[in-house]
Amino acid sequence: MHTPKADYPLSEIRRFLEPGPIVLVGSAWKGRRNVMAMGWHMMLGFSPALFACYIWEGNHSYEMLRRSRECTINLPTVSMMDQVAGIGNCSGRSLDKFETFGLSTSAGGHVDAPLIDDCPANFECRLVDERQIPEYGLFIWEVVKAHVRPDPELPTTMHYLGRGEFMTSGAIVSRRDEFRPGNL
Ligand SMILES: Cc1cc2nc3c(=O)[nH]c(=O)nc-3n(C[C@H](O)[C@H](O)[C@H](O)COP(=O)(O)O)c2cc1C
Questions:
Q1: I need a surface site. Which of 8, 21, 108, 162 has the fewest CB within 10 A?
Q2: pLDDT-based confidence at 59, cuts 50/70/90?
Q3: Which DSSP symbol is given to 112?
Q4: Which CATH number does the domain housing residue 62 bear?
């Protein structure tokens, strides 16, 4: 049984997102829900906690996200690699990925999009800037709530290299003493 998730400070979510892990984007629109895999994303600010990502317009998620103006960003661990590869290689247009890949979900407090239970971190997001979507497919979100399992402090994540290959997160190496306080 997993340790329950707890609220996590939004100013600290970079711990999970800055290293560029593959995430699962949950969406909900007009009674339907979906999930896709995503690697092209970045943090954009601490407070408000802003997060940007590229979504291809051919994905079923694209219109759901654009119309609902909300999503969940869910952080899978390496143990979910088969599910992640499957989720990212089929479309929710023709099947229910939650059923197909055995994903249990919980409701968030701020958005209708589902939180994926097996992911140790879930972020509820609202669309704050849609101006770059038509030209670049760039969605800019504000993370409004973070739910994180406190143990282990940093889960082992997966990072996509292209060619169907993933790299998994490894050793943590500190150079803290050499950092200016403003860069920590
Ligand atoms: C590892 C991985 C990373 C991906 N990264 C992105 C991404 O950053 N942006 C994107 O639009 N699609 C990305 N995809 C592709 C979508 O996840 C894929 O097209 C998915 O099937 C879309 O599902 P949907 O049609 O249900 O929305 C990625 C797929 C994989 C496997």
A1: 162
A2: very high
A3: S
A4: 2.30.110.10
Minimum-distance ligand 1 atom for the alpha carbon of 41? 8
pTM: 0.98
**Residue 79 to residues 6, 110, 114, 157, Cα–Cα distance (Å):** 21, 28, 20, 9
Domain count, the chain: 1
**Residues contacting ligand 1 via CB (< 6 Å):** 22, 34, 36-40, 54-56, 59-61, 85, 88-93, 160
Task: Give me 63's structure tokens.
Answer: 């219109």
Q: Which residue of 38, 73, 161 sits with most ligand 1 atoms within 8 Å of its CB, as the best mutation to test the pocket?
A: 38
Listed residue (159, 179, 175) closest to 16, CA to CA: 159
pLDDT at 81: 98
Quick one: which of 165, 170, 76, 69 has its CA closest to 125? 69
What is the predicted pLDDT for the residue at 121?
98
Domain with 90, as residue range(s), is 6-183
Within a domain: 1: no
Give the DSSP per-residue string, 44-111: EETTTTEEEEE--TTSHHHHHHHHH-EEEEEE--GGGHHHHHHHTTS-TTTS-HHHHTT--EE--SS-
How far is 153 from 178, CA to CA, in rounded Å?
23
User: pLDDT tens, 133-158?
Assistant: 999 999 999 999 999 999 999 999 99
